[in-house]
């Protein structure tokens, strides 16, 4: 018996009957020889962690674009906070922590530059629409590794695809990530909004903070415990009703006072201007796309999809740099 088989046996012995076991995976698009050390979900986690799309998340906006300060969240730090919250819940419920981690680390791989402002821009421009969770699947299936993709397991991809849709993930681990994503962005966005002087702790709704807590740490702790207590020994991942309602009300408050706040979103029109400028240029000049995009078009990918692939993969700084390169006048020098 090799190390992977020992790990799989340990999962059988230690995990809840509701856990997704590595040995029961529905598999990959392309069959592969099993690793003798790592389970299939460990390999998926490692593939995501080492891929280029994951590294680019460090230079993609979470909520605040180009903030003056080193402590604001980026798409990468958001991902890590989702992962940590989700792993805590999975471990407490005896579910598959490694599968949970893999889903969490991969859930935003397809996110655009400039956060949701970039996503909204591409969604308006592309005739087929654009959703970051669908793009995340395209990243892991098609775009990574020069077109070979990461060849992830069904369960990891299911969790990534359904982390913010009307559809529910099939696994308990995917459902954990779905709720952990909300816990993370509500709380760290409050923290960043207070840091950016858009809010103060006293501005937060009193009924909700009375239930959830008066600091970011207290609120995260309350929400996590609310999930663990409500989901223990059940075949679903839920949150205690009072805590869930308070979380939803706090989320609504954030949309009204931060996400749609003029001070926070004053750059959105500039983002659309940059994204639409890039989009129009590359749609009319597909020969200037990188080689991998042109190769995909030659293999049957539509020009629109290839352009979205390229733009969605950009970091904030790279998108601005390409826009300047294309549209800023260049002065003649001798």
Annotation keywords:
Hypothetical protein af1432, 334 residues, flat, 17 helices, mainly alpha
Give structural notes.
The protein is mainly alpha-helical and 334 residues long. It has a domain at 3-109 and 149-265: Hypothetical protein af1432. It has 17 helices and no strands. The protein has helices at residues 3-14, 40-50, 52-56, 75-92, 97-106, 115-125, 132-143, 154-161, 172-195, 206-212, 216-231, 241-259, 262-265, 268-284, 291-298, 303-312, 316-327. Helix 5 crosses helix 8. The mean pLDDT is 94.
Summarize the structure.
61% of the residues lie in helices and 0% in strands. It has 334 residues and is mainly α. It starts with a helix and ends in a 7-residue tail after the last helix.
Q: Could you give the distance between the termini?
A: 71 Å
The number of distinct helices, counting runs of at least 4 residues, comes to 17
Task: Return the average pLDDT rounded to an integer.
Answer: 94
Largest sheet, in brief, is:
none
Question: Which architecture of the domain at 3-109 and 149-265 does the CATH hierarchy give at level 2?
Answer: Orthogonal Bundle
- Unreliable runs: none
Give the tally of β-strands. 0
- What name goes with the CATH superfamily of the domain at 3-109 and 149-265? Hypothetical protein af1432
- Rg over C-alpha atoms, rounded to the nearest angstrom: 21 Å
């Amino acid at each position: 018996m090799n190390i992977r088989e020992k790990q799989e046996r340990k999962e059988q012995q230690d995990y809840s009957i509701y856990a997704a076991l590595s040995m029961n995976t529905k598999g990959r698009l392309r069959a592969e020889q099993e690793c003798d050390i790592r389970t299939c979900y460990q390999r998926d986690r490692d593939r995501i962690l080492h891929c280029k799309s994951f590294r680019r998340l460090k230079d993609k906006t979470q909520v605040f674009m180009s903030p003056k300060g080193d402590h604001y969240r980026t798409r990468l730090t958001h991902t890590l906070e989702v992962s940590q919250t989700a792993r805590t819940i999975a471990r407490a419920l005896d579910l598959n922590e490694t599968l949970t981690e893999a889903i969490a680390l991969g859930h935003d791989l397809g996110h655009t530059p400039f956060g949701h402002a970039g996503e909204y821009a591409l969604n308006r421009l592309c005739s087929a629409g654009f959703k970051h969770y669908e793009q995340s699947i395209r990243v892991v299936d098609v775009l990574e590794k020069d077109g070979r993709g990461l060849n992830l397991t069904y369960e990891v991809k299911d969790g990534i695809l359904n982390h913010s849709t009307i559809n529910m993930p099939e696994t308990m681990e995917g459902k954990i990530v779905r709720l952990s994503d909300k816990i993370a962005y509500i709380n760290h966005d409050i923290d960043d909004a207070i840091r950016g002087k858009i809010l103060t702790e006293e501005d937060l709704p009193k009924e909700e903070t009375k239930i959830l807590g008066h600091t970011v740490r207290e609120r995260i702790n309350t929400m996590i415990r609310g999930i663990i207590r409500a989901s223990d020994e059940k075949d679903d991942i839920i949150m205690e009703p009072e805590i869930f309602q308070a979380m939803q009300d706090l989320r609504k408050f954030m949309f009204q006072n931060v996400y749609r706040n003029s001070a926070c979103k004053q750059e959105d029109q500039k983002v659309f201007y940059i994204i639409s400028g890039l989009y129009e240029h590359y749609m009319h000049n597909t020969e200037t796309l990188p080689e991998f995009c042109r190769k995909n078009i030659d293999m049957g990918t539509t020009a629109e999809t290839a352009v979205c692939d390229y733009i969605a993969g950009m970091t904030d700084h790279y998108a601005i740099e390409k826009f300047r390169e294309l549209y800023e006048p260049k002065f003649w020098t001798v």
